[in-house]
Known about the structure:
Blueprint lengths: L1 H8 L12 H7 L3 H13 L10 H29 L1
Amino acid sequence: MALLLIMYFTSGVFFLPSALPERLQYWVSFNPLMHSVEWLRSAYYEGHGYGLLDRGYIFSFSTILIFAALVIERFARGKVMMRR
């Protein structure tokens, strides 16, 4: 729960990550939600978010999560099916 709150507050919904000092920008840039929010802002506002936005990070992070979820589902499927 605490990790979810930290990710939400550092996602850039309440502030612009580009307005943060560079030291904090570095740590906030590890949050994939921040990149998603910046991508949405750049789609709405012309020329916004090109400093911190990394589209490749979003794609690679989501690909790794999907792959991990499929692997976990594959190994857990037999255990779940046996309980029924």
